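Extended Data, panel c. Modelled sequence:
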Amino acid sequence: MRQPLYFLWTPEARALRAVAALFALTVAYLAVTVPPFRAVQIWSFTIPFGLLLLLVPFLRKAGRAVVGVLAMFGFLPVWVETGLRGYLKYVHAADPKSEIVLEAVANTTPSESLEFLTHEIGDVLLWVGATAAVILVGLWIVVRLLRVRPIDNRPVRQLRTTRTVILILIVISAFGWYQRPWRGNLPPVYWSNVLDDVAELQATWAEAAKVRPLQFDFAKSVLTSVDDRPKTVVLVIGESTNRDHWSLYGYARKTTPQLDAIAQDPENRLGVVRDAWSVDSSTVPAFRSMLTFPLPGAETLPDGRLNLIAAFKAAGWRVTWISNQEDSAVRNGFAGYADRAEMLNRVSGRSSVSMDRKVLPPLAAALGNDAPRHLIVVHLIGAHPHYRLRRPEVFERDWGEDAVEKRLEDLDRSIRVIEANDDYDEVMLYQDDVISRTWRMAKEKAAHTAVEWIYLSDHSQELGEGANRTGHSATTAGGYRIPLLLWSSAEDRRVAASRPFRGDWLSPVLLDVAGIRLRGTDPTQDILRSDYAWIRPNLPFEDPDLDRVSAK
């Protein structure tokens, strides 16, 4: 007599449970080390190998061995990679493609690698052991499955739910293999890309090593004079910050209460430049336009432009670079010139979670340095998408059905755009806190030496004003409208508030406040000078404010 629910102990049922256990084991291990969406992407590549095991009850000994080996061939690379990701995440707060990992691989000899492993043997053994345990459990599941009795001559019990689940898994796997971004997380592809990134980084280093001496030599050749009085210049560069979402610029929501208070105090003499645009809509070209500039004779340089950081170094300034962004181009192109570079964000990509308050302790340390002339560059992650990752939970707000939401509804913007605006404005509230803290720290430094403090964003974000979407935008004004704040311990910077500004004219301002004179620079590009002469940049969008200031 058959026992109740006998079908739960049939070979096909045991195969289903084994496959479900392998999937659960893989997902559980992935969940410890990678964000949920990426975990799904990586797991999806194990689906065909898991479903292959459903054939075991129908096969004999040789066939089962082949299927078992093929299945483990699919799961093993995922488990090993997951262990490595876990080690990097919990020991070094990094992922495999972060700059710190790529640099370590690119710049490490075999003897250094052995020394490194010896130094961190405890953590290494912990994650090796965890991965080995996962592999042993997986092998145990597969071996037990391979021992089930073959299907007899009876019909296989078919469950509609099982068929539906298998079909869904097949669809997920097919989608993952079809989508190129998903395929990029397939372990062989991913690690091949990592090795390519290492090779590219080594090539970049080799090129940078050639370029920097050329930049220094050219800067020295055009240097005409340097103001040798002690001074500290603090340049804070935001990311993806739209001035139209600051209450400091008239936004309906109170997103910058601290900066509002600073600007409203006449004793602070804070210059809030009302009309400022980046000339680029993404980070790397924006940094190039802000921190390099053409000069007569610079055609001999590889880029045809002088690097501003090289000019400061040639003038005898100490340079400290503090960054909460993971960007190899900015690191090699600018931070690499600094006397000290602190790269605080070790996770690449938009899923990075690294709060901007991280920059405050190293900024305090830099301000405490006794260098007579000191340029400190602070590069924030700002509002770099995804917005919800750019502020702590304490800055969450319920904005309610206010004028901002009503305007977006009048523009017939989607719910997703409206929600993104809410998230973005929470980030602006957090940025207000961080930026105002850097200003207060600079003001405290001014008790001991002359200080210049400048804040601007590299570029902006489209937030539904010019199009029914959010994010980087090369074709709407939202991608370029940036804030610019100027403060000096010795000068009233409010005189520049009514003048328009373009991001590629930042270098003349910095050279001026530092007292560095170079042959061939155009003083009329300096917004702080009385002979400042605005020229409209050639930008690919229509903006009434740009028309207004250019018509004067």
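The first strand starts at residue 223 and ends at 226. This feature is highlighted in the accompanying rendering.
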